[in-house]
Automatic annotation (TrEMBL):
It comes from the Bacteria. Signal peptide: none annotated. GO terms for molecular function: antioxidant activity; oxidoreductase activity. It holds the Pfam family AhpC-TSA. InterPro entries: AhpC/TSA, Thioredoxin-like_sf, Thioredoxin_domain, Thioredoxin_ResA/DsbE_sf. This is TlpA family protein disulfide reductase. Residues 148-291 form the Thioredoxin domain.
């Protein structure tokens, strides 16, 4: 792929000056040429190596500036073919390094400047560029960090139950659902893949009792009245919060950028899975709950 790339110029504005750099782009015919003639891939990233607690780590950052603003921090390895999406860290998310948590607070200029906030103790003195890192997050404190990432305490969701099929509306709050598994589903009325997932959610909801499993939907309504029709057609009977409702509290899930996006939360309130599709939810619940 790299041999067949072309070089393009990228511009960015910093401190009153327009700066330029070049990146490699791989062009190919799109899988669906009727909608898009070409697809673009940027097979480049900026990287550095550092030692933390005696272990060599590899940090890479998206160099194109065209996709999601992410970094990856992994133990050094001889080679790897790809990076798992679960290892990608976006702004205000946390990277796990040597058992400690580091918050990504800046990834500027196409990965040229990356700032992580966390403990300094594990770095040797030769890591001078990291001297400005603030020691604000410790390993013990990491157990209570709230973040919409797998392995972290789930952010709060609360608001008015907007599901017209439920006789009891009232307020919905994930804080009152601890002690059971909670599936949080972000979806939209215009999103066909979201609606296709509803029968799978319905099957899981009907199989497990409310004392062990609950679903909380968070929906984006684009056409008034359409939500009720979707609920009725799919027999949706779980509590649902309107994303744009004035009393809705969903700010902790600021990294939701597309629909559907979902999270599975364990009885302790920790996120244990992300973006389960079709039969994945049922299979995971069978592993966790049984039968």
């Amino acid at each position: 792929m790299v041999k067949n790339t072309v070089s393009v110029q990228m511009d960015y504005f910093s401190r009153g000056v327009v700066n330029q750099y070049k990146v490699s782009v791989f062009l190919q015919r799109a899988h669906n040429p009727e909608k898009l003639a070409l697809s673009f891939t940027f097979p480049e990233f900026n990287y550095t190596r550092f030692v933390y607690k005696g272990v060599l780590y590899f940090l890479c950052a998206d160099r194109s500036g065209m996709g999601q603003n992410f970094i990856c921090v992994l133990p050094e390895r001889a080679r790897f073919m790809s990076i798992d999406r679960g290892d990608m860290v976006t702004l205000n998310h946390f990277a796990s390094i040597g058992g400690d948590k580091f918050k990504l607070i800046a990834n500027n200029y196409a990965g040229r400047i990356v700032l992580l906030q966390g403990p300094l103790d594990g770095f040797s003195q030769i890591q001078a560029p990291l001297a400005g890192t603030e020691k604000t997050v410790t390993t013990s404190a990491a157990d209570t960090i709230v973040s919409d990432q797998v392995g972290f305490k789930a952010p709060l969701i609360q608001g008015k139950n907007m599901n017209p099929l439920m006789k009891k509306g009232g307020q919905v709050s994930t804080a009152g659902l601890k002690g059971k598994y909670i599936f949080v589903d972000f979806w939209s009325t215009y999103c066909a893949p979201c609606i296709e997932e509803l029968p799978y959610l319905k099957a899981a909801y009907d199989k497990y009792k409310r004392d062990v499993f609950e679903i909380v939907g968070v929906f984006d309504e684009r056409a008034p009245g359409l939500t009720k029709k979707i609920f009725e057609a799919n027999k949706v009977t779980w509590p649902t919060v309107g994303m744009n409702s004035k009393d809705a509290e969903i700010s902790g899930y600021g990294h939701v950028q597309s629909f559907p996006t979902n999270y599975l939360i364990d009885p302790s309130g920790r996120i244990i899975a992300f973006n389960l599709r079709s039969e994945d939810l049922m299979n995971r619940l069978k592993e966790l709950i049984g039968h």
